[in-house]
Amino acid sequence: MVTERMKQLDWDSAIEGAESPEIRVEKVSRINFVRYAGASGDFNPIHYDDDFTRAAGNETVFGQGMFTAGVLGRLVSDWLGIDRLRRYRVRFTQRLWPGDDIVCRGRVVRRYEEGGERKVDVQVVALNQKARGAHNRRRDCGLLMQGELAKPDAAAFKQAVARFASGVTIVTTALHDEMHGITASAFSSLSLDPLQVLVCIKSDSRLKEMIVASGVFAVNILAAEQRDLSDYFARPGRPPARLDDPDLPFRPGQTGAPILRGALAHLDCTLAAAHPGGDHTIFVGEVCATGYAEERAPLVYWRGSYRDVASAS
Ligand SMILES: Cc1cc2nc3c(=O)[nH]c(=O)nc-3n(C[C@H](O)[C@H](O)[C@H](O)COP(=O)(O)O)c2cc1C
After folding, report:
1. Residue 146 has pLDDT above 60, yes or no
2. How many whole angstroms from 185 Cα to the centroid of ligand 1?
3. Which atom of ligand 1 is the closest one to the Cα of 205?
């Protein structure tokens, strides 16, 4: 199969009449027919047995429809991007004979907006060497332009992710004689070997700078009765706390990161990696020490409110 590196269709270039690069398959062989027949469960001897196919009145074996559909599928997935494809319909119009060359190409037939989405209809066609349509489909490939072209609404995004029930943590660090912490639910266990967790912290937060500078952080998993602490550490403009404040409900962990007294569990970490993640930074921590309490209910956050877990035992 002769192919060129294909530039994917984008919204700006999807003007009516815009053409795709071509995919060519030269000298189609019987082996091609048999492979595709097998793959699609259509193992009819008419595609590979000369005697059989002649007895059925044909000159020789001929191509199984899934073969051209497969090549067309390759064009569609490379040119349009399979994750953006909404509908794809194929009509078989011609047989394919051994030795035929196939050329697949596509063309934009319509670009439009519908229901807040940007869509493009394309026609893709496979022609054999006699320039007859081997497989043909008109106006039926709806391409949904997504990503940067049609950004999902941020409010809808928030509503969707708010339906993920999570626990609540306070992520802390200490630098010199100060400590800082923020309420965070973007926490996950990451790896068993080595023992790692991750947290996602707003990149413009003071905590991010402090974790980078200190190289340590602790994840404190809150118990149901620690709602007030969650509210406090989510409030913007909190003054930094001094580590020697006797009222501070934290003690230094093994790494020096503050561990919350009365938390359901804690993970005391050294910073293993920091990755950019949009407007957040993904901190990966190597766990040095852990602790947990038995038989206490967690603080749960779901759809913008704290919730009770029916049974925590
Ligand atoms: C339940 C809950 C979960 C939160 N999860 C995160 C989180 O995972 N990452 C984050 O950066 N902020 C999260 N926040 C928001 C921060 O706690 C909040 O923006 C805080 O004010 C940040 O502290 P700062 O003002 O010192 O930057 C969450 C807030 C709440 C109430």
Report:
1. no
2. 8
3. 27
**Which one, of 166, 153, 151, 122, lies nearest residue 19 by Cα?**
122
Q: Name the residue at shortest CA distance from atom 7 of ligand 1.
A: 184
Per-residue pLDDT of 254-300, as tens digits, reads 999 999 999 999 999 999 999 999 999 999 999 999 999 988 999 99
Q: How far is the CA of 205 from the centre of ligand 1 (A)?
A: 9
In a 3-state reduction of DSSP, which class is residue 164? coil
CA of 178 to the centre of ligand 1 (A): 19
Judged by DSSP in three states, 204 sits in coil
Query: Exposure of 82 by Cβ count < 10 A (0-12 exposed, 13-18 middle, 19+ buried)?
Result: exposed
Q: Is residue 313 part of a domain?
A: no
Q: How many domains does the chain have?
A: 2
Q: Considering 110, 145, 180, which residue would you say is the last residue of a domain?
A: 145
* 80 and 126 part of one domain: yes
What residues flank ligand 1, with Cβ below 6 Å? 168, 182-186, 200-202, 205-207, 234-236, 301
Q: Which mutation among 183, 199, 305 tests ligand 1's pocket best, with the greatest number of atoms within 8 A of CB?
A: 183
Atom 31 in ligand 1: residue holding the nearest Cα: 234
| Segments forming the whole domain that contains residue 12 | 2-145
Name the pTM for this structure: 0.59
- DSSP letter at 206 equals H
pLDDT tens track for 187-217: 999 999 999 999 999 999 999 999 999 999 9
Residue 312 lies in a domain: no
* The pLDDT of residue 153 is above 90: no
Count CB neighbours of 21 within 10 A. 15
In angstroms, what is the span from residue 137 Cα to ligand 1's centroid? 51
Asked whether residue 96 is domain-assigned, the answer is: yes
Domain with residue 65: its CATH number is 3.10.129.10
Tokens for 264? 């359901």
Each residue's pLDDT tens digit, 232-244 = 999 998 888 999 9
Looking at residue 77, what DSSP letter applies?
I
